[in-house]
Amino acid sequence: MSDRETVLFANAAFYAAFATRDVKAMERLWASGDVMCIHPGWPPLTGREAVMASWRNILGGQNAPDISCRKAVASIYGTTAIVTCVEVITSRDETQQALCATNIFVRAAGSREWHMIHHQSGQAHIDPKRIEEDDVPPMN
Question: pLDDT: is 117 or 61 the higher one?
Answer without folding.
Answer: 117
